[in-house]
Amino acid sequence: PKPLVGVSACIIGQPVRFDGGHKRSHFVDDQLSQWVQLKPLCPEVGAGMTVPRPTVRLRKIGESVRIMDDKNNVDYSDAMHAFNERALPGLASLSGYVVCAKSPSCGMERVKVVQEDGKGAERNGRGLFTDALMKRYPLLPVEEDGRLNDPHLRENFVVRVLIYQELQQLM
Ligand code: SF4
């Protein structure tokens, strides 16, 4: 069977972004989709946010990193953690995941984190959904959409997905 690969819904063209748009990836939607079965998910919609919605970003508060709509001072962290608790157990059959870069929910690396005083920001965060996904399934191959524009990373990802699927079948 084709490996089942999770994907941020907006990168296969679903209009779920904050502005009602998408971030369709030609590679994922047109090419990768021929070799794997894609399972789309939008964690922000899953956590109860509307389309369209105010933008959210990561913000450091004390020792924790929160996901917040700073303009309206709404904290979605609890809703996002609750969504992760609900959704992650059902993703055990995935053999890989392609996430949308830079997103405070889906980004894998270098996501902007606003500092507690609201003045500075560092690019050292990970989206709260992807963070929980990678902690729960530490061996799962995960990549960002933009990185898959690199042919070497593309090939590497597909090979890792196939190996992971083999391992799943042995277990
Ligand atoms: Fe795309 Fe993820 Fe943002 Fe949803 S939460 S719009 S899937 S980047």
UniProtKB/TrEMBL annotation:
Superkingdom, natural source: Bacteria
Name recorded for this polypeptide: Uncharacterized conserved protein YbgA, DUF1722 family
Organism of provenance: Ferrimonas marina
Lineage: Bacteria, Pseudomonadati, Pseudomonadota, Gammaproteobacteria, Alteromonadales
Residues of the full protein shown: 4 to 174 of 315
